[in-house]
């Protein structure tokens, strides 16, 4: 989410610290698998959120969204946003329907270290144009993963991400950005998925030890968004669908470590 920046440099992490973040990342990955399993027509979003909260509790992890400060503290451990809802959707009595795009964003802290990830889940049978939007957004995030070891400045990557989305006929949300992450969920630097005059002023160098939560939000229509009266749910102004995907990624001397990768996650339900 977009936040007030400060002038502190990014905190670089050691190999040991990345291992601790990966432990948190595995919990986030499994929590998202719970969401995938439950995301079927007829399921209430509040039931998905409660299942994730119970999972974090079982594994002594602190959910990072619940109680997050705002005009109204965020009430849930997941952000569940449907179709035209971009991010920060509040779980409730809404029932998932066939053809929905469900965006799930969640984060936790384990033993003092954080991990954050978002996925978009097609519910039931989804129209081809919506699946294409999801495909392109996933490609936008993959560009960041591929380019992190190759570039010196973040703006070089962000421009490629934006170009890919726009060449496909979609748009990138510019009111919300990714962020550094470590002991706190939101650390410096801010990580935009686009480039303009303002972001170039705050560009940052890519160096080993940097850990970023990179989270492109790609709209089917225009990039403009608005916040609903619940003070949290962000929607597209034109009412067209949006897709949100995110990984916590670490840059090391040997390449990229995906803190929230699906690979290597054991059956944590046991």
Please tell me about this protein's structure.
29% of the residues lie in helices and 24% in strands. A hairpin with a 2-residue loop joins strand 14 and strand 15. The protein contains five helices and 15 strands. Strands 8-7-9-14-15 form a five-stranded antiparallel β-sheet. With 270 residues, it is of the alpha+beta class. The longest helix is centred in the N-terminal third of the chain and has 24 residues, at 15-38. The chain has helices at residues 15-38, 45-58, 128-147, 154-167, 197-201; strands spanning 62-63, 78-82, 85-87, 101-110, 113-122, 171-172, 178-180, 187-191, 211-214, 217-219, 225-227, 234-236, 242-244, 247-252, 255-258. Residues 1-6 have low confidence and may be disordered. The chain has a single domain (15-258), classed as Creatine Amidinohydrolase, CATH 3.90.230.
Short summary of the structure?
The chain has five helices and 15 strands. It has 270 residues and is α+β, with helices and mostly antiparallel strands.
Q: How would you summarize the topology of this molecule?
A:
Blueprint: H1 15-38, H2 45-58, E1 62-63, E2 78-82, E3 85-87, E4 101-110, E5 113-122, H3 128-147, H4 154-167, E6 171-172, E7 178-180, E8 187-191, H5 197-201, E9 211-214, E10 217-219, E11 225-227, E12 234-236, E13 242-244, E14 247-252, E15 255-258
Antiparallel strand pairs: 1-4, 2-4, 3-12, 4-5, 6-10, 7-8, 7-9, 9-14, 10-13, 11-12, 14-15
Helix pairs in contact: 1-2, 3-4
């Amino acid at each position: 989410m977009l936040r007030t920046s400060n002038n502190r440099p990014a905190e670089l992490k050691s190999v040991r610290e990345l291992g601790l973040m990966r432990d948190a990342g595995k919990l986030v990955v499994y929590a998202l698998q719970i969401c995938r399993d439950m995301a079927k027509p007829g399921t209430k979003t509040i039931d998905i959120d409660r299942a994730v909260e119970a999972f974090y509790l079982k594994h002594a992890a602190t959910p990072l969204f619940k109680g997050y400060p705002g005009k109204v503290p965020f009430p849930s451990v997941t952000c569940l946003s449907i179709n035209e809802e971009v991010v920060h959707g509040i779980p409730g009595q809404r029932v998932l329907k066939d053809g929905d795009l469900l965006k799930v964003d969640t984060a936790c802290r384990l033993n003092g270290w954080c991990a954050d990830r978002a996925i978009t889940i097609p519910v039931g049978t989804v129209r081809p144009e919506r699946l294409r939007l999801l495909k392109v957004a996933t490609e936008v995030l993959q560009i960041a993963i591929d380019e992190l070891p190759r570039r010196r400045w973040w703006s070089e990557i962000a421009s490629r991400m934006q170009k890919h989305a726009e060449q496909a006929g979609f748009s990138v949300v510019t009111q919300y950005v990714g962020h550094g992450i470590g002991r706190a969920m939101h650390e410096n630097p801010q990580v935009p998925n686009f480039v303009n005059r303002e972001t170039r002023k705050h560009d940052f160098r890519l160096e080993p030890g940097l850990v970023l939560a990179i989270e492109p939000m790609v709209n089917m229509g225009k990039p403009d968004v608005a916040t609903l009266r619940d003070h949290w749910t962000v929607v597209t102004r034109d009412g067209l669908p949006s897709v949100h995907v995110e990984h916590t990624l670490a840059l090391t001397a040997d390449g990229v470590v995906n803190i929230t990768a699906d690979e290597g996650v054991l059956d944590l339900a046991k």
